[in-house]
From TrEMBL:
This is endo-polygalacturonase. Residues 1-18 form the signal peptide. It is an enzyme of class 3 (hydrolase). Belongs to the glycosyl hydrolase 28 family. It comes from Cylindrobasidium torrendii FP15055 ss-10. The keyword Hydrolase applies. It comes from the Eukaryota. GO terms for biological process: cell wall organization; pectin catabolic process. It catalyses: (1,4-alpha-D-galacturonosyl)n+m + H2O = (1,4-alpha-D-galacturonosyl)n + (1,4-alpha-D-galacturonosyl)m. Its EC number is 3.2.1.15.
């Protein structure tokens, strides 16, 4: 028989009337609504769900939280602006367990990327906060896949797969950058990118490591494009493999950029093949590959040291392009070997380049 008294006792026993700010240990995200307030969650479990059109998800858990995927998240075709998913948690331990974020890019792709045609949400995923991000898949991002804007501490991304291979069909995938990074103290390692634009685009930041990754089908490993007032310094690019791409590796500074700088970039032990335009390109005339270089931003300290970097380019590709208007210092290219294609074009713009075979 119903009794108010027994209801109250049961409710108290269940903690319903207890402190309203009790810390929730494990929180389950299996819908857009369930992700809305995770500020007290130390342990977030993501289960499979679909994000409906017109909605986006932000996962902001308590600092130090663990976020664990136990299913894939699919995004319906949407007119929402990107990012469609933001992870914004300090000192997070994000474990993807091989599950996917499915962007359904094939529903948008028209060969025009973010330059026209169907409006494509971009970036697809945005990372803020900092911590470790391990073992997840991005499948078919509408345009740019992963934007790294971490702050507050070091961030390490490992075993990430960006799989936009489907965008190769009829050249419909475009501007599908793997990692776009504007942040300090970031490491990206043991990851794979199959796409149609930059594998990595490092736009600004210091102390960056890109190691032991695999890039296929895109525009290679890029620093830049560097815009006015932006600087990149202290970069290690080592042990990577780039295949079947427009460029192997590039440093691109916008022709009009002023007060910008790229300094202290070390390349070591990269293996690159099947390149169509330039094996390695340093350009201060971007968006041209090789034009009239700008002079209001500077590039210094570009070295190929440690283990040999080998680049094999296709017949029509230039082996190395250096198009400098304002470059300086001695660049040690002794561990660079480039074969095939057409002769290198070198305009040093103030730098001294020593060693290497190209
Ligand atoms: C989020 O949840 C916490 C307790 O878990 C609460 O204190 C806070 O007011 C909530 N914030 C919002 C915006 O609902
Ligand atoms: C090179 O760029 C730096 C940084 O923007 C600037 O201070 C310097 O004047 C430039 N040098 C030349 C020769 O234009
Ligand atoms: C690059 O090589 C030059 C010439 O050996 C050297 O002076 C410079 O310190 C090196 N830069 C880095 C970042 O290792």
């Amino acid at each position: 028989m119903f009794s108010i008294r027994s209801f109250v006792i049961a409710a108290l026993a269940a903690g319903v009337l207890a402190s309203p700010v009790a810390e929730r240990a494990t929180c389950t995200v299996n819908s857009v609504d369930s992700a809305k307030n995770l500020s007290s969650c130390t342990d977030v479990v993501i289960e499979a769900f679909t994000v409906p059109s017109g909605q986006t998800v932000s996962i902001a858990a308590k600092a130090g939280a663990t976020i664990t995927m136990k299913g894939s998240v699919s995004f319906a075709k949407t007119t929402s602006a990107g990012p469609l998913l933001t992870i914004d948690t300090d000192n997070v331990k994000f474990a993807g367990n091989g599950y996917s974020f499915k962007g359904n890019g094939d529903l948008y792709w028209d060969g025009k990327g973010t330059n026209g045609g169907t409006t494509k949400p971009h970036p697809f995923l945005k990372f803020k906060g900092y911590g470790t991000f391990d073992n997840f898949i991005v499948k078919n991002s509408p345009a740019q896949a992963i934007s790294i804007g971490t702050t507050g501490g070091a961030a390490t991304f490992s075993k990430v797969l960006v799989d936009n291979k489907d965008g190769d069909a009829s050249s419909l995938g475009h501007n599908t950058d793997g990692f776009d990074c504007s942040a300090d103290d970031v490491t990206i390692t043991n990851s794979k990118v199959y796409n149609q634009d930059d594998c990595l685009a490092l736009n600004k930041g210091k102390n960056m490591k890109f190691t032991n990754n695999y890039c296929s089908g895109g525009h290679g490993i890029s620093i830049g494009s560097i815009a006015t007032d932006h600087s990149v310094s202290g970069v290690t690019i080592s042990g990577n493999t780039v295949v079947d791409s427009m460029y192997g590796m590039r440093i691109k500074v916008q022709q009009s950029a002023s007060n910008a700088a790229v300094s202290d970039v070390t390349y070591s032990g990269n293996t690159i093949s099947g390149i169509d335009k330039y094996g390695f390109l340093v350009s201060q005339s971007y968006s041209e590959d090789f034009g009239t270089p700008g002079t209001k931003s500077k590039i210094s300290g570009i070295n190929f040291t440690g283990s040999q970097t080998t680049i094999a380019v296709n017949d029509k590709s230039v082996r190395v392009g250096v198009d400098c208007g304002n470059c300086s210092g001695t660049w040690d290219f002794s561990k660079l070997k480039v074969t095939g294609g057409k002769d290198s074009k070198i305009v040093k713009g103030g730098a001294t380049i020593s060693g290497g075979t190209y």
